[in-house]
Amino acid sequence: MTTLVTGSRGRVGATLVNLLHSKGLGVRAASGTPEQLSPPSGVPTVKCDLGDPSTFAAALDGIESVFLYAQPAHIDAFIAEAESAGVRHIVLLSSSSVLEPPAAEGADSPIAVLHRDVERALEAGPVAATFLRPGAFSGNALRWSHAIRTTGRVDLPYPQSYSDPIHEADIADAAFAVLTEPELRGSAYHLSGPESLSFADQLAVLSGVAGREVKANVLTPDAWKEAVGGFMPAGFADVMLTYWAAQDGKPTVVTDAVERLTGHPGRTFAEWAQDHAEAFRA
Measured between alpha carbons, how far is 236 from 143 in angstroms, rounded to an integer? Predict the structure, then answer.
């Protein structure tokens, strides 16, 4: 079996490439910019730009399974090319946002819409598909790394907003399980970290690895949106603010899907922080 891993520059994709290779399984690392990949020796790379259907055929040639990032623009073309190439299984990195009830037309989260559209296309297609639906990534905390290193203060509009941070290695382990165990195919799995933590809880953990006290610098939602305006689209900022407000003071539900799929408990946020400690140390 050879697996095409799209998005191999990402933390999940790169971890999955290493895991498949370490187990002696065939893997091809794909990216829109393959020249920037650095997979293990012996792992071939290929250009697969999910926004450019002309790259699909060569990337999928000889492939039996695919780990796919969600990109709705050309999903029908990707599915058709996958069927033509003889792909038997596609594992989609989806999002737990699809589990939320759809909002009024035009008011739904664009993150949920994007992932729902790709899931629906795969469900209607001829290739068996499995959906992994993680919640918040522990790696999202890396966006605080500069502030923690330089000031020890992180701008937050809702420091008591809760999420279920999941380690990228657990997502990769779950993907490995559904790619290699046929009985797990064709289902959807809601993945979460093993604990629900507020942003303030996460900052307390990061204080330990940073070697300095880290606190929230509480901003109003409008002030936070203005502060991130240089690098975050306004629509996406609005989505995040709406979600964080809904979770303010409300612990999220965690699942045991990681342990059921992988046979080991999910890694805690503290473990993730130790794995990435250098990013937070001055």
Answer: 15
263: left (phi over 0), alpha (psi -120 to 50) or beta: left
Residue 232 and residue 212: Cα distance in Å, rounded? 28
What CA–CA distance (Å, rounded) separates 90 from 79? Answer: 9
CA-wise closest residue to 137 among 269, 271, 277: 269
DSSP string, 71-113: -GGGHHHHHHHHHHHT--EEEEE--GGGGSPP-STTTS-HHHH
The pair of structure tokens assigned to 49 is 């730009």
Quick check: 233 and 172 in contact, CB under 8 A? no
Dist CA 67 CA 6 (whole Å): 6
**68-105 per-position pLDDT tens digit:** 999 999 999 999 999 999 999 999 999 999 998 765 44
Query: Which residue, chain included where needed, has tokens 């939320």?
Result: 100
What is the per-residue pLDDT across 155-200, written as a single tens digit (0 to 9) for each?
A: 999 999 999 999 999 999 999 999 999 999 999 999 999 999 999 9
pTM: 0.95
